[in-house]
Amino acid sequence: MNKQLEFRGLSQKTMVKYLLSIAELTYDHIITNNDQSVVIKKSNWSVLISKEHTYHASAIISFPQLFLTFTGDEIVIENVISQLRTKTLRLGG
Asked: Which domain holds residue 16?
């Protein structure tokens, strides 16, 4: 299964930290590609994290933008995505 997600407002560095935490892996498991994208591999799934783009919400407001492409076992990927959504949830207040 392949699944692509878009995230705004988080740096690539933070996203890598979150995914390593979920996967219970260390920074030794990161593969950095020539295009500045990053791959994290586990036995039954992997994720490609795009290089950091800039999303312009208006002329003066911009956010980091990332695209994540998950590959692997569907049930495992859905579980990882669920944990990632919890970690990336931001509530105002």
From this structure: 2-88
Q: Kindly report, residue by residue over 58-92, the tens digit of the pLDDT.
A: 999 999 999 999 999 999 999 999 999 999 998 77
Number of domains making up the chain: 1
Polymer length of the chain: 93
Please check whether residue 14 lies inside any domain of the structure: yes
Residue pLDDT, tens place only, 41-66: 999 999 999 999 999 999 999 999 99
Distance CA 23, CA 70 (A): 13
CA distances from 64 to 23, 40, 72, 74, 78 (A): 23, 20, 26, 27, 24
pTM score, whole prediction: 0.92
**Which residues in 1-86 belong to E strands, given as ranges?**
2-8, 30-32, 38-42, 45-49, 53-56, 62-72
Query: Does residue 93 belong to any structural domain of this protein?
Result: no
